[in-house]
Write a structure and sequence with these properties.
heterodimer, A: mainly alpha, 70% helix, B: 196 residues, mainly alpha, Rna Polymerase Sigma Factor, Chain: A, Arc Repressor Mutant, subunit A, 2 domains, 69% helix, globular
Chain lengths: 314, 196
């Protein structure tokens, strides 16, 4: 390329020609218009322009080179990903160490397991990031991943089935039946609950009930050895003692009742009711209603438990 | 004031059911009858049997409702009961198989002919027709050919949408085993679908 041409009036130099080609896309200024006028009359400069245009064309056709496979992973290992506990570089080192130990290259294809977990969204975040970086450069892994994604989508599109009509009613009816049976069994069990359930329990219960009987028998045996004491005399003595004790208890109870304020109020109330028969009838009706209600409540809640969940299985 | 059970969460419904409210039981039943039935149906591949097992699973769940631990999801619990029941049934039902080509010790063609089974096709019953229509697709057939454990993990993961941890809890197996089962199951499915 000739560079000794310095004037647009005579010949265009290299800078002028490059400037002319660079400015070909943009609006023409006065200098460019002058250069174009010169080129019309100068085949030598036109040849130079053509040569430069060829160079420009070659440069424009240059393609892009892809970075090596591990480039993206190296970049990712140098940045802190949000939500990661340890640094990515350390994780990357661990991955490389594992690959070295297992004899696999760090940029090896993704495993079937890894691809499945990635497609299923179950791959841990760090591994998913590394896998995606590999997928960006590996069409083979990308197409295998698409296969797993298709399978998972097919599975997830499967319908759910409904049982036959009336299923819920049948379950509820059956469950009620089972519950009532269990409640019945539970009541039957409760009736026998007071009885001992083991041989040890029976021995204990026998001892407790037998001791008073044995004590009584021992006293009777001792008394029978005393010659002055007859059976008839003993019975008469015990009868007198019991009668005196009962009489003393009755007297003290009567005295306590008669002297209490409650007895006085009850007497006043009875006098009042006798004086007005209508009030007496109303009071009797109220008392009867209250008694019947109480009996009904006891009957419903103690005699026949309405709802009792029991484990019938297990 | 009447309670709108449809807007109540599972854990609360269970608490209400434990108090003896029948409506709470009904709501739980309406929420889970389809998922539980679907799982069992795909496992046993027989509608009548699946309904019986699903009914049994619900009764067991309801009877044990006061032992439910609200720390875990109710869905995991009921699926665990349904899965155990189904697996138990499948294991009990398993009987020694006889080859259609004759007894194993039959060496001569005559002995083989004498001990071989002749299967006659009596035609489809209405129930079989429904089953074939529902489970006759390629993917359903492929699922049906998986071994029981693989089938359960695939169904729980991809149809019921449970997490790996929940599946581990439902099946009482370690998390790593769940992953292994899932990978193998999906690999088998892919292979079978490719062969079909």
């Amino acid at each position: 390329m000739n560079s000794d041409r310095s004037s647009y009036g005579r010949h265009l130099d290299d800078d002028a020609i490059q400037g002319l080609l660079d400015a070909a896309e943009g609006p023409a200024d006065a200098e460019t218009a002058s250069a174009h006028r010169h080129l019309v009359d100068c085949p030598e400069c036109q040849a130079q322009v053509d040569a430069w245009r060829e160079v420009f064309g070659e440069l424009g056709r240059l393609g892009r080179f892809a970075p090596p496979g591990r480039f993206a992973e190296r970049v990712l290992s140098g940045i802190d990903l949000p939500g990661e506990a340890s640094s990515p570089s350390r994780a990357w080192s661990w991955v490389r160490l594992r690959h070295w130990l297992t004899g696999r290259a760090a940029d090896a294809h993704l495993s079937r397991r890894g691809l499945q977990e990635l497609a299923d969204g179950a791959l841990p975040r760090r591994r998913a990031t590394l896998a995606k970086a590999h997928l960006a450069t590996c069409g083979d892994c990308e197409s295998r991943l698409a296969g797993w994604r298709r399978l998972i989508a097919t599975l997830e599109a499967l319908p759910s089935f409904a049982p036959a009509a009336g299923f819920a009613e049948r379950v509820m009816a059956c469950w009620r039946e089972v519950t009532e049976e269990a409640a019945g069994r539970s009541q039957a069990t409760r009736r026998w609950r007071l009885l001992p359930r083991s041989p040890r329990g029976w021995v204990l219960a026998g001892t407790l009930t037998g001791m008073p009987v044995a004590a009584f028998a021992a006293v009777a045996a001792f008394l029978s050895t005393v010659p002055q004491l007859t059976t008839g005399g003993l019975v008469t003595y015990l009868w007198w003692q019991a009668r005196d004790a009962l009489s003393a208890f009755g007297s003290s109870l009567l005295a306590a009742v008669m002297q209490s304020g409650a007895a006085f109020r009850a007497y006043s109330l009875a006098e009042y009711l006798i004086a007005s028969p209508a009030t007496a009838v109303a009071a009797a009706a109220g008392f009867t209603t209250l008694m019947l209600s109480s009996i009904w409540v006891l009957h419903r809640n103690i005699g026949f438990p309405r709802f009792a969940l029991r484990h019938v299985y297990n | 004031m009447s309670l709108n059970y449809q807007s109540v969460e599972d854990a609360q419904l269970v608490a209400l059911a434990a108090e003896g409210r029948e409506s709470a039981y009904r709501e739980l039943l309406s929420r889970y009858e389809r998922p539980v039935f679907s799982l069992i149906y795909r496992m046993v591949r027989n509608r009548t049997l699946a309904e019986d097992l699903a009914q049994e699973a619900f009764i067991r769940t309801f009877n044990a409702i006061d032992t439910y631990n609200p720390q875990y999801k109710f869905s995991s619990w009921i699926f665990k009961i349904a899965n155990n029941l189904t697996i138990d049934h499948l294991r009990k039902r398993r009987v020694p198989t006889v080859s259609m080509h004759g007894a194993p010790d039959a060496v001569t063609p005559e002995a083989q002919a004498r001990t071989s089974l002749v299967v006659q096709s009596p035609g489809e019953s209405p129930e079989e027709y429904v089953q074939n229509r529902e489970l006759g697709g390629q993917i359903e057939a492929a699922i049906g050919e998986l071994r029981e454990e693989y089938r359960v993990v695939v169904l729980l993961r991809h149809i019921e949408g449970h997490t790996y941890d929940e599946i581990a809890r439902i099946m009482d197996i370690p998390l790593g085993t769940v992953k292994t089962y899932l990978h193998r199951a999906r690999a088998e499915l892919k292979l079978r679908l490719a062969e079909a």
